[in-house]
Specification:
There is one protein chain. With 274 residues, the protein is an all-alpha fold. It is globular and about 55 Å long. The protein starts with 60 loop residues before the first helix and ends in a 10-residue tail after the last helix. The chain has 8 helices and no strands.
Amino acid sequence: MDGFGPRPPQLRPGRALAHTPGASGSGSPHRSDGRTPQTPRGGRHTDLDGRPGTTPPVPGRPTFLLGLSALLLALITWQVAAHGPLARADERLSGTLVRPGRFSELLADLGNATVAVPVLAVVLVYVAVRDRRAGADRWWLPSTAAALLVAALPALIVPLKELIARPGPPVMGPGTGFYPSGHTATATIAYGTAALLLLPRLHATWARRTVLAASVTLNLAVAVGLIRRGYHWPLDVVASWCLGALLLTALAMFLSRSTGRSSAGTPSSRTGPS
């Protein structure tokens, strides 16, 4: 009976394991006949790099970034206002970094509103026209929200400058109102918002990487110029980066939720089981 009795089916060498539950823990998610599965797992959207992702974005990451940015901004502000150990170390570091020169001044000028805001304006017009031609329901919303954010930036920066009243580096002479850096905040919001709006609308990987690299490079250039020229202490720049991260994350969350609500209200053209 050992050779002829009933027993579980045996796998043959080279047989496909697509439907075998034990092939990879809980089974392979792909069908052996090559057709697209009709499960939510097979219908996932892809992220900016073309890899499978989830829509809407994974919960928790924006909240973590908001919390971390707010915590760092609060810590730096407290140290600067109380002239604590971190602020004193910041001043000593600045003394070793300041090397006034024409090149550093040109880099700092990239954070001027007369330079950064027109760059963003071109992107806002492009995004609005592109979305309208594509038939988007709220084609005006991303550009309008970004424009309002830039317009509201002075209302956030100026009160902080007056409240903290931090003196500037020695090369700036007497005066206060250097914390946080307005040039850094302008560059972070203008170039960061431009990248935030362009990335989802670019299909080529090289184009997305180019836009992201350009945004990061411009912001780093502004920071180097401000610190090397002696326009700001290093912590003035870092604090503006934290504030910019808060605002950009909030803008991204707002646009994501608004787009999600708009998509949910649009009848789907797909038929059959989901």
